[in-house]
Every structure is written in structure tokens, then in C-alpha cells.
Design goal:
There is one protein chain. The chain has 22 helices and 22 strands. By secondary structure, it is an alpha/beta fold. The chain folds into three domains: about 1-105 and about 190-270, P-loop containing nucleotide triphosphate hydrolases (Rossmann fold, 3-Layer(aba) Sandwich); about 115-185, no CATH class; about 285-300 and about 305-555, P-loop containing nucleotide triphosphate hydrolases (Rossmann fold, 3-Layer(aba) Sandwich). About 45% of the residues are buried. Strand 1 and strand 2 (about 35-45) form a beta hairpin. The chain has a six-stranded mixed sheet with strand order 6-7-8-3-9-10, sandwiched between helices. A six-stranded mixed sheet has the order 16-17-18-13-19-20, sandwiched between helices.
Length: about 575
């Protein structure tokens, strides 16, 4: 286990980072409004302290204040001290802070594509850190960058050095950002949600890499996350934040086994478990039948041979009324291509997609338009899938009006749906940006259900949400299945999530279904090596978060819980 050698208590000796009674004021507000209030924490050499909380808790503001990256016209540190060794960063000049960045303290951001310059090769971008700090000559700097690429286990460092960010995978890009942060061997590393957007296997590799480099350099790590599954794998100590304030702090085992505060207990218990529920009785009433579905993308290159990429290869399954089937796999496995073919957002290369008595794969014109009323989709990013210029009422009405539903019926459905998704009527007059991520996703689900479809496709619908909000949305989807009898095709890269809601699971790798069956059978006794690797990579698999105790994963999976939704 990755966490076997972790400390059980705060180490003795001098801390690399000490934050003392820090307050960050919201500059744009006249009253005493603070983004964070009275925060105190410390991180010692070789220690990993996890700063945990939901979106808006203030954990990222804490990290940006430490790095001197707060937007001064919006936020400023009004009280407190931030000590890096013996130096108070809040009293240091801008030039001094710049000299400390990368050399003594560094930060890994959540999204590597926004942290990297898209029009510059990645090698010179990492080399720029050395150049800015006056390290070596060009040949020495390049050699040092290549050595760093080897240290973070990038394949073919010479080739990677000349690549652009878009030519690399998400995991490779994150390794580049880690190289940039650690190339000068800083004493403090701040990692701000560095694995949130990654597949579970890539996430496991990145967490192991940070631990490996930390042990080699004795780096102090402040790791920011909302996922207690990740916390269980890597943390020595935990600091829990909520609405800009510290809720509680303690060692990893103390917090996970016996959280003192209700908020912490909620966060911990919201982590989805790999323990599947007992199989739910689902009738044999086929709604959607997919047979030998194929999708091939033809890539055309100006200066290289054209090639074909197989995204789906003879995919077959049957979805019954009231059933939830999960399609699981990493990025590039083909699961989203299958979902988009079924929705006819892209045209399949071949195969049968039978909805009732109709074949979606060959439907055209008015026939396709009529079938689309029976199929609706919820996308990963609710903000991008809602028109920012439309009020919520108009967003909910749009589909129903397009299909000629009467005004009275529209109002009736809107009132019912808002009640079902836990929103009140005041939401109708507001715009998407005025809601939280979880609220926006609830509204997207309401919009998708407004046409009373037979099939709902949820494409990574919870992967970008905090674990507590994720739990609420999963429960909502299950409630809608029971209320309306709809069938759900649930696309995810996380088997923990699939375990909570799916009746059947299809595991995809490189366009092929490598394993399929009942959810409890797949999770209890996976047959394919790829499925086994996905389960093994699930963060926190050795903890029963609902019952606040460590477990042996193999034995726990053989004793599924009584309720299907945990």
C-alpha cells in the first residue's frame, strides 16, 4: 500500500511552511467579507499535509496566498503571517517572492493545459525556469531538463522535449508540470488538485510519482483536494476547511477513523465505495439494443500518412426499462464515442442501435428528430452545456417548445422537475453562472428529463463535482430512474462511481468491451487484467469510508452491502 510508511503524528523539528492566523479579505466588498478566516497550519520536511474541502472552502486561496499569486484588486492578506523557513512571505517584496518561486517553493496546478503555453514546445518551457534563475548555459539546462524528464518517468525524453502540449496525454502533461515545479528542488511543493481530471490509473501513477520525488528530496508537500479517497492514499496529516474556516485537523488515521465534526463526517462518508450493492431485480423489457456497433475516425495529415483510429469495435449490449448500465474505461477507451453514436451526435460506421422498433444508426431527417425526443444526454460540464445567455426557465422550455408541448403542460413539468431535483421556483429567473456546479448539474438533469425520455445518457456527469455533490447527483439519478422508469446509460472512468449506481457494467479498453456483466460480479470477481488494474488504482480502496474504518479490499468486495445505493 502506498500509505504504509506514512507518519502517524506531526513530525518534530522545524516546519518548512507555517501559516499563522491568516485572514484574506475580499477587496471588492465594503463590509468585512473574508475568503479565508484565521487559518493556521504547518508542513514539515518529507511530510504530506492534505488541505481538504469542497469548492469555495478557501483551500486554493490559501495556496495562492502562500505563493503570492492573489489578485490584489480582488483579495489581499489583511492579517497573519506565512513563514517559509525563517522568512515571512507577507513582508517580502515582489522581486523576492519571484526569486523564491521554483527555487524554494513551487506549485502544481489542476489543469496542465492552462499551465502550459500551447504554442511552445514543452522542453523549452521547463528550461525557462532554469534560465529565469540563472542556472547554467543552454546545453547544461537542456541536459538538466532531460534528466528531470527521466526522473518523472516520461517515455523517450528527447522526443518529449520537442513536443507541444496538445501532442501529449493528460498524464504526460501533468508530469511536465511536475518537472517544471521540482526541477530546482524546492523545499515546499503545493499541489492544487493535480489529479482531479485524470483517469484512476494515471492518477495512481502521479500520486506515486509525487511521493517518490518527495522522498528523494525530502520535500514538504501541501496537497489540496476534495477527495478523501486520495487523502487516504497519500496524507500524513489532514486540515479540513469549510467556507474559509478550519473545521478540524489531525493525523490521517484520526480523521478517517473518528472525524469529530459533522462536516468532516459528511465529506468522508460521501466518498463512493467500491463495495457494490446487492443486485437489483430488473425486468426483461428492452428499451435500447446495441449490436456490433463500430466507429472509426479517419485522421488526415498533411505531412504524415493518414490513419484510422478505431473508437468502438463490435460493441453490443441491451438496456432494459429502469436499468442502469455503466460503460467504464479510461480516456481513449471509446466509451464517450459509443454514447455519442447512440445519441447520433456522431454517425456510427456500422452496427445496429435499436430504440423500440427503430434503428437510430440509419434514421434520417424527421424520423431522427422524432427519435431524439426519446433520448436525452447529460454532459460532464454543466456550465458549458447550458446557454449562459438564457435564464433557467427558457433553458427548460426550449426542448419542450421545439416538440410542440402545450404551455400548460410545460409549466406543469417544470414545477414537477424543480421539485424532484431539489430546486425552488426562484431558480427560473436566474442565469447559469448564478448557481454552484452541483446546482447546475441538477438543472441539466431537469432539462434532460423535461421531454420524458425513454433513455438518459449520463456522460461523465459527476466526474467534475465535489464528492459530496457527486453523491447527491448519483442519488438524484437513481431517484429519477425509480420515479420515471427511465433507463440510464452511465459513462464514467471511475469504478467507484459505477459501483454505487449501476446494475450492469461494460469495461472498455481501446474500443473493445473487454468484460461485461452484473456490477457485483465485475467488482467482486473481475476476470480481465484491465478491469483488475482499474479496481486496484481506485483511490482509497482499502478504506470503508461509510463506516470510518480500514478494510481489506478483497474481503470487503466479497460481502456487498444490502442496499444498492450506498
Amino acid at each position: 500500500m502506498m500509505n504504509a510508511a506514512h507518519n502517524t503524528q506531526a513530525p518534530a523539528g522545524k516546519a518548512v511552511l507555517r501559516i499563522e492566523n491568516l485572514w484574506v479579505k475580499i477587496t471588492s466588498k465594503d463590509d468585512d467579507s473574508y475568503a479565508i478566516s484565521d487559518i493556521s497550519l504547518s508542513v514539515h520536511p518529507g511530510e504530506t499535509v492534505c488541505l481538504v474541502g469542497e469548492s469555495g472552502s478557501g483551500k486554493s486561496v490559501t495556496s495562492l496566498a502562500t505563493m503570492g499569486l492573489l489578485a490584489r484588486d480582488e483579495l489581499h492578506c489583511s492579517q497573519g503571517k506565512i513563514w517559509l523557513d525563517d522568512e515571512n512571505l507577507l513582508e517580502a517584496s515582489s522581486s523576492r517572492i519571484r526569486s523564491l518561486r521554483a527555487s524554494q517553493m513551487a506549485m502544481i496546478f489542476q489543469e496542465p493545459m492552462t499551465a502550459l503555453n500551447p504554442v511552445e514546445r514543452v522542453g523549452p518551457q521547463v528550461e525557462e525556469v532554469l534560465k529565469a534563475h540563472g542556472v547554467g548555459n543552454p546545453s547544461q539546462r537542456k541536459r538538466q531538463v532531460l534528466e528531470m524528464f527521466e526522473a518523472v518517468h516520461l517515455p523517450d525524453p528527447q522526443k518529449i522535449y520537442t513536443a507541444y502540449p496538445h501532442q501529449l496525454s493528460g498524464g504526460q502533461r501533468q508530469r511536465i508540470v511536475i518537472s517544471m515545479a521540482l526541477i530546482l528542488k524546492p523545499r515546499l511543493l503545493i499541489a492544487d488538485e493535480p489529479t482531479t481530471a485524470l483517469d484512476v490509473t494515471t492518477q495512481k501513477q502521479i500520486l506515486a510519482l509525487i511521493r517518490e520525488l518527495q522522498e528523494k528530496q525530502n520535500t514538504a508537500v501541501l496537497f489540496i483536494t476534495h477527495d478523501f479517497g486520495v487523502v487516504a492514499e497519500i496524507s500524513d496529516r489532514i486540515v479540513v476547511m469549510n467556507r474559509g474556516k478550519m473545521v478540524e485537523t489531525g493525523t490521517r488515521d484520526a480523521i478517517l477513523r473518528n472525524p469529530a465534526e459533522a462536516y468532516t463526517r459528511m465529506l468522508v462518508s460521501s466518498v463512493p465505495s467500491l463495495i457494490p450493492g446487492q443486485a437489483r431485480a430488473v425486468g426483461s423489457d428492452p428499451i435500447l439494443h446495441v449490436e456490433d456497433l463500430n466507429k472509426t475516425y479517419d485522421e488526415i495529415h498533411l505531412f504524415a500518412p493518414n490513419r484510422s483510429v478505431v473508437a468502438a469495435n463490435n460493441v453490443s449490449f441491451t438496456l432494459n426499462k429502469g436499468e442502469i448500465i455503466g460503460i467504464v474505461g479510461e480516456s481513449g477507451s471509446g466509451k464517450s464515442s459509443v454514447a455519442r453514436c447512440i445519441m447520433r451526435l456522431i454517425k456510427p460506421s456500422s452496427g445496429l442501435i435499436q430504440l423500440g422498433d427503430s434503428d437510430l444508426a440509419t434514421a434520417k431527417g424527421e424520423a431522427l428528430r422524432d427519435l431524439r425526443q426519446r433520448l436525452q444526454i447529460v454532459f460532464q460540464d454543466p456550465y458549458r452545456s447550458l446557454n449562459p445567455r438564457l435564464r433557467i426557465r427558457d433553458a427548460l422550455l426550449e426542448g419542450m417548445e421545439n416538440y410542440g408541448i402545450s404551455a400548460a403542460e410545460c409549466e406543469k413539468r417544470i414545477a414537477t422537475l424543480l421539485d424532484w431535483v431539489g430546486m425552488d421556483k426562484t431558480a427560473l429567473g436566474r442565469y447559469p453562472h448564478q448557481f454552484s456546479g452541483g446546482q447546475r448539474q441538477r438543472l441539466c438533469i431537469a432539462r434532460a428529463l423535461a421531454l420524458e425520455p425513454d433513455v438518459l445518457v449520463a456522460d461523465e456527469a459527476v466526474s467534475a463535482l465535489d464528492v459530496s455533490v457527486q453523491s447527491q447527483v448519483l442519488k438524484l439519478l437513481d431517484d429519477m430512474r425509480q420515479r420515471m422508469g427511465i433507463a440510464v446509460l452511465f459513462i464514467t472512468h471511475d469504478l467507484r462511481v459505477a459501483a454505487q449506481i449501476c446494475d450492469q457494467i461494460l469495461v472498455m479498453q481501446r474500443g473493445i468491451v473487454v468484460e461485461a456483466g452484473r456490477a457485483d460480479e465485475i467488482l467482486v470477481n473481475p476476470q480481465h487484467a484491465y478491469t483488475q488494474a482499474l479496481i486496484e488504482a481506485a483511490p482509497g480502496r482499502h478504506w470503508d469510508f461509510q463506516n470510518f474504518r480500514p478494510v481489506d479490499a478483497a474481503s470487503s468486495l466479497s460481502n456487498p452491502t444490502e442496499s444498492h445505493y450506498v
